[in-house]
Amino acid sequence: MPAIDLLLVICVAYVALLFGVAFLVDIRARQGRLNWLRSPVVYTLSLSVYCTSWTFYGAVGSAARNGLEFITIYLGPTLVFVGWWFLLRKLVRIGRAQRITSIADLISSRYGKSPSLAVLATLIAVCATTPYIALQLQSVTLSVQAITGAGDGAAIGFWVAAGMALFTILFGTRTLDANERHHGVVAAIAIEAIVKLVALIAVGIFVVWGMAGGIRGIFDGVPTEQILGASDVFGARWVALTFLSATAIICLPRQFQVTVVENIDERHLATASWLFPLYLFAMCLFTVPIALMGLQSMPEGTNPDLYVLTLPLAAERSDLAMLAFLGGFSSATSMVIVAAIAVSTMVSNQIVMPVALNFLSRRTEVSGDVRNLMLTARRVSIAVILGLGFVYFRLTGGSDALAAIGLIAFAGVAQFLPSLLGGIFWRGATRAGALAGLSAGALLWAYCLFLPSFDGGFLLGAATLAEGPWGISLLRPEGLLGLSGLDPLVHALIWSLGVNTFLFLGVSVLTDTDPLERLQGQQFVDVFRASGRADSGVEGRSANAEDLFILAQRILGTDPARELFDHIAKEQGRATGLPSPSTSMIARLERELAGSIGAASAHAMVGRIAGQGNLSMSELIDIADETQALIETSRQLAEKSAQLARAARQLREANERLKRLDAQKDDFLSQVSHELRTPMTSIRSFADILRVNEGLTPEDRARFTSIIHAESIRLTRLLDEILDLSQLEAGRQPPVLGAVDPAAATRDAVDTITGLAVARGVRIVHHGSATQAVQANQDRLRQVLINLLSNAVKYNAAAEPVIDVTLSERQGQTLLDISDNGGGVTREEADAVFEKFSRGGRADRDQGAGLGLAISRAIMRTMGGDLTVEFRGDGTSFFRAQLVQIPAEVTPA
Amino acid sequence: MEDRAGQERLNRRTRDRAAVLLALGILMFLPPFVGILSIETRIASVPLPLVYLFTVWAALIWATRRLSAQLAEEQEDRGAQGETGAER
């Protein structure tokens, strides 16, 4: 057997190696050269701090005693990592966004930075960590005893505890990182993770193929029942243990430390989600074979927890035994280091610092060195935590199975679960609910599981355990209110977590939240909605005018904020730069911000930056962004409803237009029938006369026939016009447009009408000129002009009728005005003249169907122009045809 | 926009698969399903329940690895878009 001196030398050398690695990595980290250390594999390996000596030694012991049950401790974490997207991702995001430093910090931050919750959570963490550290002390002590044969467990335990305390203080409190990250420690733990995995697999391979001669040698002859363990192995305890281990991977302070606090990149979780379960898988692969081999080959009374060590020793492979010892030592030290760092961070941040700051701020003349105070507080708390662990180890006599001690710790930290899950998924969770649930759960855990674990050696005597306090059996710690027949662990779990959850939910729905709590609740529950600006790295404590300016920019906008700060700076007598954050300046800013976000929020935000609050800058910016998002949302809502109102109005208008069009259509139809009826009646009556009266003179006959002929022509023309109009209005067969000289077109039309004009004694006078070509169809334009001119000729009742044709050009348009001295139309008639079958007041019955102007306007519009009635200052009217000019450069020469 | 919608549908499917995988894992690892195959049959002399547990475990790890790669891509996407959408 190796001597204890050699063991000591190897341990010290190993620790020195780890320390060297941690030291180098810290130096690299400070230089910003982390490279491979930022790898997801290192992150995953650091998570393996979950596998303590409970796993390394205890799993085999558990498998030997209880069969397959040990595996539940690894199935729970596997399931949590399989579902990483739903819980761990959110935890890590919240941890980064809120710069959470521990699980106690997370819970207190979520519930409005409550100091009482922080203290309570820290106390629970300390209590639950104590048995776990005792477990590590016990396992290292046992392994030292097993290897060296030394006898005094207490002495070994003490020196192990002292050594680990020193080790942890050296490792974990050399520096203070604002984010509580320890790159060096993580690297050392990753190395330890590899050592323990390699050691366990090496022992496993040796046992299976070196000792048993293969897998058959292990399993043959062993009944399946013995491998499975108790007949009801897959019962309530299986469920409880799986649930507990799943809870532990989230709630254990050291797991929270490595998973959330030490996480440097969220994407590492994606790799860890399968690599960590794979690590656990590999750690468990040889557990059953080693346990079976130990049961078969080791003498009765050998501690099954130590099979990993004693099997190689029995086979006289001290090199392998030494490797196994180092593996167990790695498991223990990594757990102790991380757990002690995590818990000491809680103690110093949540208990010592608030008290110290309070004390210092009352005596302002004392300028305490906060940094030194923090480091001292942490060192002292590490020593105290290991001391507590040692006391627990001594009080429980070091006789318990490792797994049983570990489960007590698991059940303790499981009390965090309701407040944690409720806090990140439910806005309605309140501080009072969390306080009530946590304290009741912790008390019940202590009463039903933690204190009984001393077997009557501490606070609760053996008699109390057996018969209940003062002989009241209903209060028996392991059969509370007569709930008996259960496994003590399941019993304690049902009581503590059940009451915890019930009180948490019940009190939460009965109490209200304060504004800061609501704000934090929103930040936690909706962490994925806020934009990811988690790494801005400005410390709330060191906030200054610049931070206030950034905050103001977020809320007021850049320019108003700049104006405001310039203004304040001028008032303070500063020509340039930001104003100094004096009390009046802060009050002023608060008032300005209150206008945008409400007085309470403004006070909270500015107070946190300017005062001693510990909300960080990035969080405040997130709050501001949230507010902005809300404002934006409500603005969009208002816009939407305005759009809806507009759409409704348009629909109403469209409906009315449709009704009007429907009425017009009816009108049109009745007018068309009326117009058709008149010539038809005339044709029919003359045809009747011709048919019935035989004795008509040839002259009469010829006259009647010519009337019928004339009426038919009129009918045809009317139908042509209706057809023409409907085609124009429907936009079918649009006229082919080209460049037309307006002056020539006008002259042409006037020439055509001259015959009629001369016959009626009407004089046509030309005015103005137009040179620019217009966009028109030659024939259609001619049709319009002739229509207008013939109307002017036909309906002119003046004594000396004169028609003025005036050409002019204006803003890309050519205007063609046709006026006469015949009286024109009145303003009331101006729109009506363009309607179908309308005739001006001065037209008499037989002079056309009244479609001419409607057709003319339709033609003008299809050519891009228009036809309107305009009025002069003296009230006389004229027709104006507007034509679109073709720009000079594209005019054909 | 077409691309974004398609991507979003794909992402939702990946997330749904992750949820189903988790549910499946819970189902297979807890009673009563964890107790199936508790019979005196052995594969290469390893008892069947042990084979069952480790096989399911390995399969779960394999499936998680496949899904995580896709989920990680989605995470990347979201990072690029500032993650403003509603998230459940």
Topology, pairings included?
The complex is a heterodimer of chains A (893) and B (88).
Chain A lengths: L3 H27 L9 H8 L5 H14 L5 H11 L5 H10 L5 H8 L4 H34 L4 H20 L10 H29 L3 H5 L4 H5 L7 H16 L1 H9 L6 H17 L2 H11 L9 H8 L3 H45 L7 H26 L6 H12 L2 H10 L5 H20 L11 H6 L20 H23 L4 H11 L19 H12 L1 H14 L11 H15 L1 H12 L6 H76 L5 H33 L7 E3 L1 H19 L2 E6 L5 E3 L1 H17 L7 E9 L2 E8 L8 H4 L19 H11 L3 E6 L5 E8 L9
Parallel strand pairs in A: 2-4
Antiparallel strand pairs in A: 1-3, 4-5, 5-7, 6-7
Helix pairs in contact in A: 1-9, 2-9, 2-14, 3-7, 3-15, 3-17, 4-12, 4-14, 6-7, 6-20, 7-8, 7-17, 7-18, 7-19, 7-21, 8-17, 8-18, 9-15, 9-16, 9-17, 12-13, 12-19, 13-17, 15-16, 16-17, 17-18, 19-21, 21-23, 25-26, 25-27, 25-29, 27-28, 29-30, 30-34, 31-32, 32-34
Chain B lengths: L1 H28 L12 E2 L2 E2 H34 L7
Antiparallel strand pairs in B: 1-2
Helix pairs in contact in B: 1-2
Keywords:
heterodimer, A: about 900 residues, five-stranded mixed sheet, two-stranded antiparallel sheet, 34 helices, 7 strands, B: about 90 residues, mainly alpha, 2 helices, 2 strands, about 70% helix, disordered C terminus
Can you walk through the features of this model?
The complex is a heterodimer of chains A (about 900) and B (about 90). Chain A is built from 34 helices and seven strands. Chain A has about 900 residues and is mainly alpha-helical. In chain A, helix 7 (about 115-150) packs across helix 8. The model of chain A is unreliable at about 365-370, about 530-545 and about 840-845 (pLDDT under 50). Helix content of chain B is about 70%, strand content about 5%. Chain B has two helices and two strands; from the N terminus they run αββα. A two-stranded antiparallel sheet of chain B has the order 1-2. In chain B, helix 1 runs antiparallel to helix 2. Chain B starts with a helix and ends in a 7-residue tail after the last helix. Residues about 80-88 of chain B have low confidence and may be disordered. Chains A and B meet through helix 4, helix 10, helix 11, helix 12 and helix 14 of A and helix 1, strand 2 and helix 2 of B.
